[in-house]
Design goal:
heterodimer, A: alpha/beta, five-stranded parallel β-sheet, four-stranded parallel β-sheet, elongated, B: mainly alpha, two-stranded antiparallel ribbon, about 0% strand
């Protein structure tokens, strides 16, 4: 009887195993993509479109059958622009949620807080933040999709030169990106025959910059003004600029490449120039532009689904996700080291920010052609040419 | 040089007027109950955000402003009835902590009712800058200064010439004596909260077109308004106004002439040095004890 019972159990066991061996997709673990974004708080107009974009495209990818035969799962946290919170959430993503890769970090501050964690956990991390310090010096596991602040400075200086300005004023805020961009601009100014003759700063929560702008106005010889920052500061700087009657060209960084900035600054934003990804003027691109299909496609998807205008920040998230997806496809698995190597080897990938050519010494892969100079006209973006 | 001075002065006056309104709110409540209401900044936020929301919903601007101020007044009254009055017998420190808790609660409520984004309110009479002595001022700044002056005059009349106002002053001088002569101290406390909330909300509405508003503007404005009230002498109405203007101008001048990065440091350093020499503030009552 024991033998019979044992045989019965064995048979039952085999039968169960046979029954629970369905298609690969159901039995396999989903690919976990972790993200920490500034969905609320002062950087909300960066993090909110980023989050929406990630959700939208992971849904689409899953509907199309997933990736390497597995479904994708997004694990998302809101750090509200706080570097401390970002660090806590990243720790949770790595240790508790055990994600395969992270696409996130809306701001430079939150990204830099997380870098030591991903380096020691050896997890690929694609950042969506701007400052050059994220990828320079190159860190093995950290990549980024947006243009750097140094590229913004260079693009702006080239445009300033074209308009005949050589002596300029700088005004920047107190945040990580602001400070980084200010330092970068001061460093590369000489290369473009630009001299910075006034350098003002404002605090994080400041609501009035007329004093700083008055000082700039009274500095003799200033031909153009560059505001390095994002969020509330540039909007108020722009309003104050108009208020005190300054007529010199005003340049902003790509940190305000969103309709929210135009809405907050109102009429004062007319004539302001800034470097941004072609995404903002997708329709105006000539049909021969290699970027056109990608940017118009993303713009259409996003605007149909969320009934609000695209911003370059959502575009960065799209690029980050697609780079990760491409890397996983090429690696054929979610093995972290293989995915990292695949990411580093990506060439000729066309994103919303431009064509990406990664290399061991360049974990961003964009060049200056990826940036277009835009101007605000009648409350909308216009390509400067 | 002097055009720049005028510019800094005008900016300082505008921002100082806002601090003065917030400081007045602190002083009025302090007078009625010795409580420092740290939710004062939140009334400013409710005024600004409420006006933005109502005018975005389609109401004409004047109506949106009036309704927002009324809503903030109701919140102030509710705060008093629900949070402060039940804890009447508790030590003042406990009441202050209750107001801190209320401010955190109101901020959280604001993120649910509205959102965490920045918002701008349409200026009351356009935003074409006006040239004054070589500097420029926005029409909205004129509104701020004008309305603040009007409110200060109204409050002076209220406290100096009406029975109710005099009753509030009497309560601040000696609560027991006021009760003995028949002043209803409890309902005066309620009134003081409502009045302070209205003042804060008016400040919030006036300044929203210039400085943008969001759910957490109350934090910094409340802190600066409190500093201004201390500087001028906590409990003194004139002190609140003087303190607000001095703080605003000090900030603006330091940003202009010294360094924009250190303007907060300098403004608070000035405040600390005044308090060092005059602990009751510029116009505060000199405290004295009978020996």
């Amino acid at each position: 009887m024991n033998f019979r019972r044992a045989l019965g159990c064995l048979t039952l066991g085999f039968a169960l195993v046979a029954a629970l061996e369905p298609g690969q997709a159901l039995a396999q673990e989903p690919i976990k993509i972790g993200t920490f974004l500034s969905i609320t708080g002062p950087a909300a107009f960066l993090g909110d479109p980023e989050n929406k974009t990630l959700e939208l495209y992971i849904e689409k990818l899953n509907a199309a059958g997933g990736l390497i035969g597995r479904k994708l799962q997004l694990v998302s946290y809101d750090d509200a622009g706080d570097a401390e919170k970002a660090r806590t959430f990243a720790k949770r993503l790595i240790e508790q949620d055990k994600v395969d890769l992270i696409v996130g970090g809306s701001t430079t501050g939150t990204t830099m807080a997380v870098v030591p964690l991903v380096e020691s956990a050896q997890l690929p991390f694609v950042s969506l933040a701007g400052a050059v310090v994220i990828i320079e010096p190159v860190k093995k596991w950290v990549f980024k999709t947006p243009h750097t602040d140094r590229m913004a400075c260079e693009k702006i200086f080239i445009d300033m030169q074209a308009r005949g300005a050589s002596k300029i004023a700088l005004i920047s805020g107190a945040g990580g990106f602001d400070k980084s961009m200010r330092a970068e601009c001061l460093t590369v100014a000489k290369k473009h025959q630009i001299e910075v003759i006034a350098d003002e700063t404002y605090g994080a929560g400041d609501t009035d910059m007329t004093a700083q702008l008055t000082k700039i106005k009274n500095t003799p010889g200033v031909q153009a003004v560059l505001n390095a920052g994002f969020g509330q500061g540039p909007a108020i700087v722009t309003k104050n600029y108009r208020q005190i009657g300054m007529k010199l060209p005003l340049y902003q960084s790509h940190g305000v490449a969103s309709k929210e900035y135009i809405k907050l600054a109102g009429e004062a934003a007319e004539g302001v120039r800034l470097p941004a990804a072609a995404l903002l003027v997708a329709e105006a691109l000539p049909a021969s532009d290699p970027q056109k299909p990608v940017v118009t496609g993303y713009k259409r998807e996003y605007e149909t689904r969320f009934k609000s205008e695209v911003s370059t920040f959502g575009g960065h998230a799209y690029d980050g996700l697609m780079l990760a997806v491409e890397a996983i496809k090429r690696a054929g698995s979610t093995d972290k080291a293989q995915v990292r190597d695949a990411l580093e080897g990506l060439h000729g990938y066309m994103g919303t920010a431009g064509v990406v050519n990664m290399a061991p010494s360049d974990h961003m892969g964009l060049d200056l052609t990826a940036f277009r100079m835009l101007e605000v006209k009648d409350g909308d973006w216009v390509l400067v040419r | 040089m002097s055009a720049a001075f005028v510019q800094y002065l005008l900016t300082g006056l505008t921002v100082g007027a806002i601090y003065a309104l917030v400081a007045l709110g602190f002083s009025i409540i302090y007078n009625a109950s010795q409580v420092i209401n740290f939710a004062q900044g939140e009334f400013v936020m409710i005024g600004g955000m409420g006006a933005v929301w109502l005018s975005a919903a389609g109401l004409p601007l004047p109506l949106a402003v009036v309704l927002a101020v009324a809503a903030a007044t109701l919140v102030g009254l509710a705060l008093e009835k629900l949070a402060v009055e039940p804890a009447r017998g508790a030590p003042v420190v406990v009441l202050i902590i209750i107001t801190i808790g209320a401010s955190i609660f109101l901020r959280g409520l604001a993120t649910i009712v509205w959102d965490k984004k920045l918002h701008v309110l349409q200026p009351f009479s356009g935003d074409a800058p006006i040239a004054v002595l070589g500097a420029t001022i926005l029409p909205q700044s004129l509104w701020v200064l004008g309305v603040t002056l009007l409110i200060v005059l109204l409050l002076a009349w209220f406290f100096g010439r009406t029975l109710l106002g005099k009753a509030m002053l009497a309560t601040s001088h000696n609560r027991l004596a006021a009760q003995l002569v028949g002043v209803n101290v409890r309902s005066l406390l309620c009134l003081s909260f409502g009045l302070s909330a209205a003042l804060g909300a008016v400040a919030g509405v006036l300044v929203a077109p210039i400085t943008l508003t969001s759910y957490d503007v109350g934090v910094m404005l409340g802190l600066k308004g409190f500093a201004a009230a201390i500087l001028g002498g906590m409990g003194s109405g004139a002190g609140a106004v003087v303190g607000g203007l001095v703080l605003g101008i000090a900030e603006s001048m330091s940003a202009g002439y010294v360094s924009s990065a250190y303007k907060d440091v300098i403004a608070f350093a000035i405040m600390l040095s005044v308090l060092f020499f005059m602990p009751s503030g510029l116009l505060g009552k000199r405290a004295s004890d009978r020996v």
